[in-house]
Amino acid sequence: MPESPEVQALVDELESTLRGRTVAAVDVVEFRVTKTRSRPLTTLVGERVLGVTRHGKLLAIDFDGSEMLVVSLGRHGWARWAPAEADAAAPPAGTGGEAEPPPPTLVSLAFDGDTVLELTDAGGWVSLGCWVVDEVDEVAAIAKHGPDPADPAFGRDDFDHAVAGRRKQLKAILQEQETLAGIGNAYSDEILFTARLSPVVHAAALGDDELARLFAATTSTIRDAIAARRGIPIDRLKEAKVAAMQVHGRAGEPCPGGCGGEIRDFTFASTTAQYCPECQTDGELLPLKEGESGR
């Protein structure tokens, strides 16, 4: 699932490439992507791009006709530039034409200058969503957003107001967009490892020192990741994210904290997450699934 650091890098590339360009054509391959049926994406034809902004894990393309295209990448959505026809016909170098097929394009937006942006979805169900609105707050997910830890103005008071005293597990709080915008499964694992806190402990059980560690880990993890992704081409952002993870996706590997322990899987809200038992749970193994302990 794209999270704020990767979405910010995507937004930066879209901004630098699309600002000032005019929409020449829109092709909606999958009708379920359109969430504003009374304002189809084809109404954007002829509009000129004024800028691109990030809102949590969503992005918005602002046009000069006062309209905005808001895109939720969902769980498996992403964006890419369509290759030139000659490049598209040729198989990737060194693959013998047997490379894994790319995710399907669900929406295509052609701009002047032969620039084509494709919105894709690699999932078994459509998670990509698009809205044509006048203001971003017309999209309910954005209207309900909590503060964004990437915002330089986000401080300890904002964090305590959102988190402190909550009778809810830390990992759930970090991923709750109404509490803190932009964090998902991967970065919540990274934040909790950095803070050396259990994913399943309730926020209400934390002392001030632990809250301070969690605040510092939240802001540094997200802001450092945004800085690290800056300038990486959008087709390499997933690879860069995976390579940067300390614990997420690394079950079975030695703990990078040097404790001698091993990163373990556990099940959380129908997904698999990772943690270090030695560093985060005093050696307790969290359940991998009902009735089991994480491997």
Dominant shape: globular
Order of helices and strands: HEEEEEHEEEHHHHHHEEH
Widest sheet: strand order? 1-6-7-5
Termini separation: 23 Å
What structural class do the secondary elements suggest?
Answer: alpha+beta
Which stretches are low in confidence, meaning pLDDT under 50 for 5 or more residues running?
Answer: none
Largest sheet: 4 strands, antiparallel
GO biological process, one term: base-excision repair
Keywords: DNA damage, DNA repair, DNA-binding, Glycosidase, Hydrolase, Lyase, Metal-binding, Multifunctional enzyme, Zinc, Zinc-finger
GO molecular function, one term: DNA-(apurinic or apyrimidinic site) endonuclease activity
Domain FPG-type: 246-281
How does this model look, in words?
- The chain has helices at 4-18, 85-89, 140-143, 156-163, 170-175, 185-195, 208-229, 237-244, 277-280, and strands at 23-28, 49-55, 58-63, 68-72, 77-81, 105-111, 115-121, 129-133, 264-268, 271-275.
- It has 295 residues and is an alpha+beta fold.
- Helix 1 (4-18) runs parallel beside helix 7 (208-229) and helix 6 crosses helix 7 (208-229).
